[in-house]
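Bumping with the actual sequence this time:
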Amino acid sequence: MFEYINGYIAEITPTYVVLENSGIGYHINISLNTYGQLKKGQECQLVIHEIIREDSRSLFGFFDKQERELFRLLITVNGVGANTARLILSSVNSGELVNAISSNNVDVLKSVKGIGTKTAQRIIIDLKDKISNTDAEINQIFGEQSNTLHKDALSALQMLGFSKPAIEKVLKKILKDNAGL
């Protein structure tokens, strides 16, 4: 099993990257969040999850270990395969996913194409305990989720009618640019 692959990005699309290492091009499936972190021609390291089936071998790459761990948790849920897990991680960032699961927010998961009410509920039921067991680690990874200023701003802007994904994007940029807030 591979832990990570270092290499040069020979080709990149929103769904996969070809990472060249020692003359070998690895076709690695990626999420949109990982895609946003990469540029063609750059050197990078992707953490890998390998899936071996009777008729295929697939590599799934992630920019960081936290996204890979969420991917691994998602594929343990009955009815959620690797491509569905990748779609979830492409539609919702890691922090939002952890927040949705820990707060029983079915609507966030239902907003992902192909995820219905039953699957969203199953994901929450199956993963809530697994995520709760690692609250300290998650709070360390997703510090902005516990930031009361972040939560207050999010609530206020949602009440004014702005969409949550747009708010999250702007707030992350503000908090990133102004670390002292």
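The tokens above came from a reply further down the thread. Strands lie at 4-12, 16-21, 24-30, 43-52, 57-62.
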